[in-house]
Structure formats: structure tokens, C-alpha cells
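Hi there,

I know you've been waiting on this one. I reran it after we fixed the sequence typo, so this is the corrected version. Both the input and the resulting structure follow.
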Amino acid sequence: TLYAKMCLMVTFESFQATMGLFVSVLPYMVVAGKYLAGDLDFGAMSEAAAVLAALERSFNTMVSQMERMSSMGAQAVRIQQIWEVLDHISEVHEGKYSDDGALLERGGEMGARGVSLVELPADSLLRADVALLRLEDITLQPPLGQVALVHDLSFELKSGDSLLVCGPSGIGKSSLLRAIGGLWASGQGSIERCASSQCFFVPQEPYLCLGSLRENATYPGSFTAGGASSSSAAQSPTDAEIRAALADVNISYLLERFDLDEAVDLDTVLSGGERQRLGFARLLLRPAGLRFAIMDEATSALDEANENKVYQLLRARVASYISVGHRANLENFHTHKLNLERTALGGCSWRMGRTKAFLGDTAGSSFCASPERDEGARENEVAEAILNRGESGHSSERADAGRSDQWSPL
């Protein structure tokens, strides 16, 4: 802890200062007898003091750098782990392993975890009635917290469905997306979604790599299309496709500033809105097998006109998507809305239903969510309402009463 570290540092500094004073007089105490007997002159005694002082400084230097050396060791371990993952990715592209390698077996669960994630085989998603994403009884638990962020959340998205996740900052919206992406293990429940090769994540702040405009537009590079074998990896986008994608998101003027293959530090050049549009251009340049998109406030820096343009392209590009956002305008491009509300216990309750402002046809929408049954007078209200509610502050008995083993359309 911080106090233990502070006490240790004070003790060490005190010991070091005491030793410094002791070392300054120790050589004179050792050779004082020989000096008084006339066996040594004063210069030899001074040389002994200088040698001991040099040893003391060397020892202090080594001890003072101990924390830095231990930190360097931890960083070396992380670099080695990243290197091993990159080697594994290269082997996947070379056809030595399956797409998901040792991290995730196709149609299987990802390791031993509280929240289980299952990737569905690509050939099982060809039918329109198959869910691209299904969450069942998901409860997300903070790593160091006791109150669940989300409690007993269940829904599924099929082709043509889209979901907008809303709520105040810090309530757990991005944590839900991390769980869908396989990056959140703390909690319970099960998640089924299409294969990772058919999904694409668009963050709020896209990573800009060191390189050319072409390399940033096609980042993170080409990969296997549609869940096919690694031997049939998609070809890199052509110049015309890259130019068309940049024009679609209204940043074609970057081609007038920089050549496609000109090395430029875009991280210091582009504004927040330009970065987000470049991040969305990456989605447009993915292989044709892309079916599901995850948008984590990916249009927060865009004006309304560009935001409308981006979501119109998104609806035409993927079969289903889930977004996190705060603007009311986003309801125009989502069939359903999940609203997270903070509770007094520190967790959140959730309400889910159709959006009234959706600009598309919802006749073919097949969105399903698990309804919550409540007690008393609320039972009739919930039976008639569109929205489903789940509260993380419920007791275990009430939570069991609020769960449903059947999927039913809203």
C-alpha cells in the first residue's frame, strides 16, 4: 500500500544518510592507529577514505535504481507477451492455425471465466432468423467492486436490428461493449455472437499508426473475410476503394494534402472529428463478410450532418450494430434503445424498448429481450409496457422472480 511504501522509503533514506555519515569517518578510525604509530602518512589515509567513499556511492547508485530495474523487468515481460501474440497472428495468416487460434475455439467458450463468450460458426449465421448477438442473464461485476454494474441483462440482435446504449458517464456502457468483445471476464452470464472476423469495433478515439494515409485507412490490415480459411485472406483495398471510402465520410480533402503512400504523423495533424471519420472509413474497407459493428461513442466529435452520413453508411454496410452515445439524434438510426440509470446502491437499473424516432422500417425487426416480472401492481404495468426493466439493487429473491427462461419479442 501507499503508507507501507512511504514508511519503507523513509526508513531506507534514513539508513542511507546514516551510512553516508558513518562512511565519511570510518576509514580514519580504521587507520588512525597506524598513522599515529608512523606506519602510514596522511596521504595514504586520505586515499583509503576516497576508496571507501567510491564504494559507498556505487552501492547507493545500484540501490536507488532498484525500482527502475524492477519496472524495466515488468515492461520486458509485457513486451515479450505482445511479441508472442504478434507471432501467433502471423502464424494464423500463414495458415498454421485457425482464425481464433488457441484463444477461442470456434463454437466454444473462451477459457474459464465468469462471463462466457461463444463465437458462432460463420455458416450457422446464413439464415436471417439466427441471432448475431445474444446476451443471457449478463451481470457485470467490477474487478474491485461489490455492486454489479449491470444485473441480469438479456437480449438478442438479429439481422436488421440495432441497439443504442445510453446512460450517464461511468455507469458501465463501455464495460458492456468490452464484455461483448471478450475483454471483460468479471461477472456471470453467457454471450453468443458472430465470429470475430465478422465483427468490427469503432472506438471513440481511433488509434493512428505511424505511417502513410493508406496504412492508417486500412489499419489493422487485411484479414480473412467472412470466417473463411486463412488461405483465402482478403486482398488489400485498391487505391480507388480507399479514395471512395474517404470520400464517403467527407475527408477526401486529405488526399489533396497527403499522398496515399506519404509518411505523415496523422496523430498531430487530424482533429477529433477527422480521426473518427477515418476510423469509420476503416470499417468501410473491411472485407465483404463483415456483419456486426460495435460503436463506442464513435461519432461524439462529429456534427449532426456527418453523424447522419456515417450511420446511413453503417446501416447499408452491416446487418446489425450496437452503439454507445448520448445524442437524441442517434435514436433515428437504431431500432431499439437500452437506457442505463444509476441506483442508490451504486449499480444501475436498465430499461429497454423500441425507439420511436427510428427512420427505417421495423416491420422485419426481430429484436428479443427477456421481460422482467415484478410484484404487486407493477406486474400489470410491465405486462402492458414496451420497456423491460432490470435493477441491479434487487435482492436475490426478487432477481430470480424477475428473470425469464424464455425469449419473447417486445
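Quick highlight: Residues 98-112, 223-232, 371-410 have pLDDT under 50 and may be disordered.

Best,
R. S.
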